[in-house]
């Protein structure tokens, strides 16, 4: 692929690779959208945007296109919104294989279909070698929050139960392995998946669901620290309850990483009142993305730090927000 | 009314409040027929006195002072004295009586009383002005009974009479108590008869008993009972970490070598644990597997005296806590958290207001030094060679302690512990509040470690924000060096520091820990250091010594030996991590000890506690000809030493000799390097500090090699991170002075 300033080759490329896959055909410079949910009194529009860079762009369990759709869909879903539309913008490095682009775009289309969203507008730019790494994707998403729904971290109260939908750290571990420089052999796949259906199921089963957050970069530890800080509570995790793939555990041991800080692309934590925890758990387990859902902790009255963990040995440890890199600190 | 007579106004400075100093002065004056007054004030004790033999009186003030007093200065000026008789002037409600002394071990008089037939015979809470609980029972200031956990116990008439009598050694002893009015002891589960006797019977039968002590609960068992020891290790999931022991001096002498210096520390009112070389009869290996020294302490309270006497055998005493959490202090928490460890609980109803661990000390080549400053030593103050505005120093992370300065005095806190535990973090905040209150502290600057992720750094920065005062970042090993210099009272221009330590963040972003520094309190330069090696897996390299052995062997060209010794680990992955983000570089000396230990088969796969490998390495060391390290004037390279070690391992040489050769080689090279730097810098002062100098073998070898220079060695300030805050404070003071 060579870059040309809006020339014919470029238009052909867009036509060929992108427009034919994304609906609706005959896209104008702006998408014009209508939906019955928008007219409901009390409904709120939700909007989010994210840029995706990942190396390598294809990895076990997914690719950058799938992440770009899931990430944006999930950001809408954890706020209680029903995702409806996405935009997608591509920065493509000169020399990127067209076949690779086709796979990425097909993956986006499939993921969008599964999540029930349409990619309604987009853009592409080709930049010189080294100005980008293969391909960068920015997706924006629009969804609708039904009337009466108000999920926010501030709503979390002492006693509430924290549930995660499945194993932690698989995405981060899969990416590390896929980079190849560490000669790690593993069957770990990224957990990259959409969480829209799961969120609808939880909210239906546990109507007083307080808040949810997808545990992407910075992992579960970072998501929980932000939520606990906002809510003015301390969340205590139970180390023995954390769902970890044994291979992720093993990889973290050799690399000296903490799976609580590894990135996820399809993991979330949701806080529900204790009396609705069982219902929420059952509902989650009934969905594809929540089969391994489990209670991992509980909100408590605010202590000296936002997040702690009861260890397998019965003691408690602080689960910090990371400052900079994971510098060694055992002295 | 007598005429004003020419007398003296005498100012006494030092630790002279809350230690029975005023009644001592009162008795002395009465005995010598003097007139006048004595009072406490903000600066210490103030005496106005008239009569004959005033010189003798002044001499006696320091010469005959009560046991817990420390007289730093007696300053006397002529003054008119208007008084009949001699009296103690009471201070106001929140006057000067704010000083609190450390908890002190039972004095000889009280010991005699509990052993006698008087009303305190066999009473576990006997104390007087010369001994007993202080900081551990203090809830609020000022220090009087109503503000201690003795508040709920109303004094009986007999105790009240003693309390009010200046001639009595319990005059104003706030925790005064007797069986009629004081705290009560009981055993759970319930039993018949005397709880001490019943506890002793259980212990002799091999039970593990949780015992409420001065600063927290201990788990105790018969130290001669191997089965009981094994049970305790299993229940605590503590396979190897040495346990402390409690015995009488006679008992200790049966199992350990007790020199004069050690005996002086054991019998000190602080009653610390003192590490003593094993000698004579052997205790079961389970006490301290693989160690050559055992930690012994004398009983510190009547309860412990009575119990030890009833058991008649040395007792193992270990802090009672959940893994990683601080020692349990309250009865309900003990029942809940210790149920899985203890067969019974020896409880009492005097609350512990402040958690205080047992102190740990060792005997170095030039006398004792503190390894863990704790119960019995705080809130004592230490002198500073610098003066200046008040500074708060936030300390380190794993062995956190804080330091508050005021003028030329420093209040270095007790060992607070590992700030990775939220409970310990809460203790840290509490210690800050308490000691700030106690010391009436208003810091004008906050000193913190360079490491941004230390909890102490975060809290220190938050405190600075709150107070609107500047933060002063202090490099970890600069602080260690300053601590040793400061304790020695050094005031020169340039000194050299040999800092052998675990890890500390350097200004270049790598982790330091094997450094020869040159400079003073205000600034240092890194004159020399160990060749950096990657920490494979960051903090994992600390818990798994084989990772350090791998990188040091590989760097020495001994890959084949590494493959042979550690082939059961994923070496191909570990080697590919080198140069990546999960293998930060470090010049740590502590990790070099780990590397050598791992090569010798000591804790290579995993250490069950911090320092296990290094302690095991020291324990096996025997005198041997040294391994030569590389030294080019800037970098100390372990590679030649590793090659010699590899050859000796192949040749099947005794591991004790290999360890000895390593110790000797490291001591030799750091001493040579320090000497060279000192010569270049034109100084004769060399400070030794950092956690590795808890290793007495290393400390002794380095001190011997540099015995012709002026050495600053750790003493009351721990060489490890427990002393860090004291050094941080000095660096801050120097920088503030420089502007
Ligand atoms: Fe240190
Ligand atoms: Mg996002
Ligand atoms: Zn006494
Ligand atoms: Zn009484």
Automatic annotation (TrEMBL), chain B:
**Which pathway does the UniProt entry assign to this protein?**
Protein modification; [NiFe] hydrogenase maturation
Which residues does the UniProt record annotate as the domain YrdC-like?
Answer: 193-376
Specify the Acylphosphatase-like domain's residue ranges: 7-90
InterPro entries registered for this protein in UniProt? Acylphosphatase-like_dom (IPR001792), Acylphosphatase-like_dom_sf (IPR036046), Acylphosphatase_CS (IPR017968), Carbamoyltrans_HypF-like (IPR051060), Carbamoyltransferase_HypF (IPR004421), DHBP_synth_RibB-like_a/b_dom (IPR017945), HypF_C (IPR041440), HypF_C_2 (IPR055128)
- The EC number of this protein is 6.2.-.-
Family matches, as SUPFAM superfamilies? Acylphosphatase/BLUF domain-like (SSF54975), YrdC/RibB (SSF55821)
Kindly report, in one word, the top-level EC class recorded for this enzyme.
Answer: ligase
Q: What are the catalytic residues?
A: 22, 40
Which key words are in the record?
Hydrolase, Ligase, Metal-binding, Zinc, Zinc-finger
Per the UniProt record, one Pfam family is Acylphosphatase
Q: Which reaction does it catalyse?
A: C-terminal L-cysteinyl-[HypE protein] + carbamoyl phosphate + ATP + H2O = C-terminal S-carboxamide-L-cysteinyl-[HypE protein] + AMP + phosphate + diphosphate + H(+); an acyl phosphate + H2O = a carboxylate + phosphate + H(+)
PANTHER family, alphabetically? Answer: CARBAMOYLTRANSFERASE, CARBAMOYLTRANSFERASE HYPF
**Family classification:** Belongs to the carbamoyltransferase HypF family.
What is known about what this protein does? Answer: Involved in the maturation of [NiFe] hydrogenases. Along with HypE, it catalyzes the synthesis of the CN ligands of the active site iron of [NiFe]-hydrogenases. HypF functions as a carbamoyl transferase using carbamoylphosphate as a substrate and transferring the carboxamido moiety in an ATP-dependent reaction to the thiolate of the C-terminal cysteine of HypE yielding a protein-S-carboxamide.
This protein's name: Carbamoyltransferase HypF
Q: Which organism is it from?
A: Jannaschia pagri
